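Supplementary Methods, section 5.1.

A reviewer requested that the exact input to the structure prediction be made available. We therefore reproduce it here, unchanged from the version used in the analyses.
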Amino acid sequence: MSSSESPVSPEVQHDLRIVLRGCDELLVESEFAKKLQKSRDTNTPLRIKLGLDPTAPDIHLGHTVVLNKMRQLQDLGHKVIFLIGNFTSMIGDPSGRNATRPPLTKEQVEENAKTYYEQASMVLDPERTEIRYNADWCEQLGASGIIQLASRYTVARMMERDDFTKRFKGGVPIAVHEFLYPLLQGYDSVVLKSDLELGGTDQKFNLLVGRELQKEYGQEPQCVLTMPLLVGLDGVDKMSKSKNNYIGITEAPDSMFGKLMSISDTLMWSYYELLSFLSLEEIAGLKKQTEEGRNPRDIKVMLAQEIITRFHSAKAAQEALANFEARFRDGAIPDDMPEIQLPGAPLGIVKVLRESGLSSSGSEAQRNIEQGGVRVDGQRVEDKSLQLDAGTYVVQVGKRKFARITVN
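The structure derived from this sequence is encoded token-by-token as follows.
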């Protein structure tokens, strides 16, 4: 903050450092510092908004990147509003998409929403969380209300959105209802009188629409905080259930442990920065240890245990480690292994072994399975007709052959 702007107290500077840790962008930082100072001066909590559309029934670690930041703001004394987009889900968020997404039915949304708040409460403090559903006000708008809302934003501004621009230039259809999504998400901020809205980097446009609509409705505009998108297990795309490269926060400890151990040593540091509660100094210390020769696998084990302890228990984390080590006792997992991409999901295990080179032929692959020498994510394969869906797996043949295989 420049010297020409109003100074903020040391307490606010401390709070701002917490808010900024790991974030991609805070717009506008000087405005938010003033909001924090006013909040302290008046003993009035800020209203912090996060909206999630229940497009799938479960929350994964990618969602918790933003939820963790919400919890930090909650612990600083601010009011957290967890907004379930049960109305906007039926439109479908076009963010980052190159085609119109089929909208969900009301029944699908209601089914998915059942578990959302319960799972979010594994990160947020439920006693200090306000839960809202945007169908409560969006359904009341009616046709005339939607028209009035649409009159407050121009097509030119809407076409500034990167994915819309690319689709328009590429001749890819854009349905009119897709323009309604950012408008209604922005209207949520008006209704909730939000001071700060959080989201992933792919939500930046939508969050800024909320800021502009608040000005249109005579409100002080919200600030916008974007968090990086957590890359999924494949090391390529953002974590997503549709990509099957995710770790659900309610998955069994053994499954979580195996998946976390399957990520590459390079990707591990991104997971530490976005998911771990260790300080940045502690993470830098761990990175230095690996540079000086410590096995990255040890550091990955620490991360897996931290995550499993958070969502299960310390005992479950210890048991998951013991089970993982027992599964691989006959052959230690190498620090480096070939990373192979195989198209055509789902793929039969025999074809996976043959095309990855882990087995020289289909018949050898079948013999390897019959002899009990094939493991996928540590689990022995006994069924020669096993199909691997899209996702990333550590595949082992015998004691020496390993590959991290992404089926897509």
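Residues 339-407 form a domain with the Structural Genomics Hypothetical 15.5 Kd Protein In mrcA-pckA Intergenic Region; Chain A fold (CATH 3.10.290.10). These observations are discussed further in the main text.
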